[in-house]
Amino acid sequence: MTQLEAVERKLQVTDTQGRWETYAPRFAALQEQDLTAADVPGWLAKWSVLSAELNDAGSKLSVHADLHTDDDAAQTRYQTFLAQVMPSAQRAGHALIQKLLAVPDYTPPSDFALNYRRFRDAAALFREANVDLGVTHEAQKNRHSVLTGNQKVMLGGQELTIPQAKQRLDSPERGEREEAWHALAESNLKVAGDLDHVMLELIATRRQLARNADEANYRDFRWKELDRVDYTPADCRAFHDAVRDEVVPLTTELMGDIAAQLDLDCVRPWDYNRNNLLDPQGRESLRPFKTGEELEELAQRAFAGLDEGLAARFGQMRQGGLLDLESRPGKMTHAYCQYFPTTNEPFVLMNVVGTAEDVRVLFHEVGHAFHGFYSGDAQPLVWNRWSPIEFVEIPSMAMEFLTLDHLSHALGDDELARYREKLLQGVVTFLPWAAQMDAFQHWLYAEAPDGLTVADLDRKWLELDQTFHPFVEWEGLDERIRAKGWQYYHIFQVPFYYIEYAMCYLAAVSIWREARNDAAGAMERYKASLRLGSAYPVPELYRAAGAEFRFDREHIRGLMAFLKEQLKA
Prior knowledge:
By secondary structure, this protein is mainly alpha-helical. It has a domain at 3-140. Helices cover 64% and strands 4% of the residues. It is built from 25 helices and 5 strands. The protein has helices at residues 3-10, 24-32, 40-67, 72-84, 86-101, 113-125, 129-149, 162-167, 174-212, 218-225, 233-246, 248-261, 292-306, 308-319, 356-378, 389-392, 394-402, 413-446, 454-468, 479-483, 489-493, 499-515, 519-531, 538-545, 553-568; strands at residues 153-155, 158-160, 323-326, 336-340, 345-352. A 3-stranded mixed sheet has the order 3-5-4, with helices on both faces. Strands 1-2 form a two-stranded antiparallel sheet. Strand 1 and strand 2 form a beta hairpin. Helix 2 packs parallel to helix 5 (86-101) and helix 22 (499-515) runs antiparallel to helix 23. The longest helix is centred in the middle third of the chain and has 39 residues, at 174-212. The chain is globular and about 75 Å long. The protein starts with a helix and ends with a helix.
């Protein structure tokens, strides 16, 4: 059996699993059961198992649809599940929450207190009108997946996927980079009009979701939906300002130094890839592997050097059809980690093309997978697994750094130094992008006018791009290309989920800083924090991992000084 065949087998969902009738009697039995405080633990355990089975089916159908964006049957099957199963499941889940909240004299134990409070808040936010509207919302988001998953790029007489074309942006030859950039821009502009239409529909839907829930705007609605209780929109705005003042100058300095060493007259869009800055010596980008299998072997050896338990988990993923790494036509171009709760198994989807960035992304996504494994082992209730979103990127981003000292088998000393430098540079260059993404969404969902147009979206993105990326010279280029930078995965698929990457990157740097003095202790703290799952508040999870929950100006300034020192070294 090939690995792809193993993946397809893992993602199989029977017709029975895709029907609401399969789950309805068990939801009804839970609703009808007499419930006292003493009965709650057993009742919750049954509900958790049922929820896991339902989530399993939805997750597998979703991944299968993402692997086959050009397969109408796969798309229809997933959309049918969303339309015919999930609304009923949402209503039944809300009824069970209300039943739990009504149990007299029930005091949740410490490991369920947070989720009990989250249930209470979710019940207050629930509106019947938003159930069917949520189905519409999911269908609109899926339209983005189909449009971008089927994109092709014509370059040098070849038809390439988006990841394959983006690989050419890392060429040391400026002419090749420019050619690839224009080809990608042409491909993006072909779908831009359709994506504009999808976005306007999404904005209207999201504003209606907020109105239905009696919230002033979609930001306020989403704040509650995401359970953001440890910080405010004002804290986010302060973060935007701090990045503008503390990080943008450092990014500008980095790119200025590289441009000077390469004798570039200015930094053009094809000269700036925030994930992989140009090599100042004009060397080819690192190519640590050629195939997905080679990347798996590289990672397996790195995990073996880092921690025996992590290596075993990754081996389980390799053998169990839980990795799909190769880029191919008809496959969604993003990378992510999904989770199947009934078997406590994570699944990683990627689109690798042989770059060092692929290595980093694999460690990132498998860090998520470790989070799923360890929290699932320690937390029987499905709601207590994983963590609040403000912590969920720490297991992934910290893994990017913790594996640094275990790559000598794949990279020579010089290559490893270059990889390390790229990783550190990536933190610096990511923060302006994260601030821009977050600032755009605060404007879009809390400040933008009712009669919002595509031109308004484009104009705001241009304004923010000039603030956070002032060192890129766009003169003489089609302004539409720059203005459409907001047409990005998270804007469509997971609104307001982006600043968490910045929070967690800052924490990951802190964890790595400590690991350089106590590697074994850092690894034990890392795994211990994963086991806590979603049963503890965000600040406690950060402390358990060996970091502070901070993203204020002073903290950012201190970490930027540390990174600047490390880059000089």
